[in-house]
């Protein structure tokens, strides 16, 4: 049995209200929106078998090329649905109002999607990438039998955590000790992510964690999430597909803050902090201004699996509990850009 945090991740869902784009309505009256509960760890194209029959009598003649948008921004189908929601809705919107299109696929923005086959290929490819980062090779994914690989994918599509928990150990992903619950049982099936720590001499221990970081850098000040401006294009998002070099030092806790800041020097600088109080510890904004240096950036929000994370949480707990099934940790971050 997986632990409670992992169950919440797999059971997480977003209520969607999906409208057919008005230019494609070929019936009178126009169909009402479709209401769908979308799994967070799923992908939008996997919802099409549920949605298409609902709108089929209202569509104009022609060949389907299905895609979704949110407030005019085409949604990238290979990003998990929960990550899209966390990224695009700074202030969560429920239900999430999306528009579905059956014509006019924006090939200049989105890579082609051939339905479930494309999504499955994307998932398996991400699994290989993650295993290469974690284990240094992807041979366990490559050597997995076709039936086991198919069953693993089916468990993700169906949100079947029990089946996934039975199959995923065959990947032999190395593990990392959870600093947050070290005193608890260390035999949890979900301590499957990360890299094994074999150094028993009390020396520094390192690991490589697969991370996909999505960063919105906002120039203007804002106090509340509802004041965050809407995203106009994908150019507003910086996408970083980098491993976190997890460094464990005796007597120190490697935190989510450490992980994010290690990935963001080009956005928030080597001296990046996340509050005015903490900035003052390193000399403060006043000192930076006096030295003629740029003001430091500020992490305004870090969201994983819909949770607004406290940055001091041990990164090992985040890794062991909030990863997606393809063994990537997806982090959405809002950054107040430094004044140059």
Q: How is the main sheet built?
A: 5 strands, mixed
The average pLDDT is: 85
Query: Count the helices. How many?
Result: 12
SSE series = HEEHEEHEHHHHEEHHHHEEHE
Structural class assignment: alpha+beta
How large is the share of residues in beta strands? 15-25%
Low-pLDDT segments, ≥5 res: 183-204, 270-294
Q: Shape, please?
A: globular
* Strand runs, count: 10
Write the layout of secondary structure elements.
Blueprint: H1 4-11, E1 13-20, E2 34-39, H2 48-55, E3 67-70, E4 73-74, H3 81-88, E5 96-101, H4 116-135, H5 139-142, H6 146-157, H7 161-167, E6 205-218, E7 237-248, H8 256-263, H9 265-268, H10 276-281, H11 284-290, E8 298-304, E9 307-308, H12 315-322, E10 329-336
Parallel strand pairs: 1-5, 6-10
Antiparallel strand pairs: 1-2, 3-4, 3-5, 6-7, 8-9, 8-10
Helix pairs in contact: 6-7
Written overview of the protein:
There is one protein chain. With 340 residues, this protein is an alpha+beta fold. 29% of the residues lie in helices and 20% in strands. It has twelve helices and ten strands. The strands form two sheets. Strands 2-1-5-3-4 form a five-stranded mixed beta sheet. Strands 7-6-10-8-9 form a five-stranded mixed beta sheet. The longest helix is centred in the middle third of the chain and has 20 residues, at 116-135. The radius of gyration is 22 Å and the shape is globular. Residues 183-204 and 270-294 have low confidence and may be disordered.
Outline:
The chain is α+β, with helices and mostly antiparallel strands and 340 residues long.
Which key phrases capture this entry?
alpha+beta; 5-stranded mixed β-sheet; 340 residues; 20% strand; single chain
